[in-house]
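Reviewers of the previous submission asked for a worked example of the structure-prediction workflow described in the proposal, so we include one complete record here. The input consisted solely of the amino acid sequence. No template or homolog information was supplied to the procedure at any stage.
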Amino acid sequence: MEEGESSPLLSQFLLLLQDTAGQEQPLSRNSLSTSSRPGPVPQEDQVGAWSSRCCPGTKHQAWKGGQVSSLPLSTGSSCVKYLTFLSNFLFSLLALLALFAGLWGLAVKGSLGSGWGEPLPTDLMLVLMLGGLAVSVVSLSGCLGALCENSCLLCCYCGAVLICLALEALAGALVVALWGPLQDSLEYALRVAIIHYQDEPDLRFLLDQVQLGLQCCGAVSYQDWEQNLYFNCSSPGVQACSLPASCCIDPQEQGALVNTQCGFGVLRLDEDTAGRVVYLQGCQPALQQWLRENMWAMGNCAIVIVMVQGTELLLTAWLLRALAARKAVEDTQPDPL
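From that input alone, the workflow returned the following structure tokens.
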């Protein structure tokens, strides 16, 4: 009885072990087949892949075995990175503001695209738009390059800054070498501005500001305005033998508004009578004197601009060197298993 009773118990225990082994073996095969099939990408890998596509040069955190594969920048290099980003961000904002102001000015005047066919743009709004566009592109490349740690964008930014410094140095050398001829060409420039005074609003605004600020009229004399088609005494218009209001000694005539007709008929008057109404001196001598008095101030402004650009270039070079050093360290480290 004891052997007969023990044998059924032993056989049931062996059957239970076989059933357990049979259940574990399919589970192991299923786990292997499931691990070999492509499944959903983990969230950390998705974030790393997105950041690598958005900023190819950035140090995205690719998790392998619970460890970060990239090395962080040092404290000094991180400060340089964010300082470069902030400075270029401010410059890009100013450049975009100038770009939008130029576009707005061109849209208001209705001259958008009118100066593209000329060798050099004569429209001041067009010059403002082109300058804002160039500076914004360069500043945004430096801004994004520093933020994303992209060596390619930073190299392009350095090249653009070097080109700007070279052009500024060339322009400064030409101004110093041709300072005398440039002063002599002021008379020709003023005469051209007088001839086209009614054709271009920006040119009219600049010439009015020069005559009001320097208290002058015309290029050499107030009679130079006879070269203008509208102010010439033979003109059939109502402005014949007249002068712009900016030539008047008191254009407001002690009032709140400018009297635009204060210079009407002045060219018909004799010199003594005209001298009581308008300025008789031309703008060329006054403009030459103003340039001589403010030459050092303009030179200091140019030096400050060059120093700012040089500082930006040094910061970008430091950041590029830090990125190259980090990449060299990462290449020497073995990949974690």
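The longest helix spans residues 295-332. We consider this example representative of the routine output the project will generate in years two and three.
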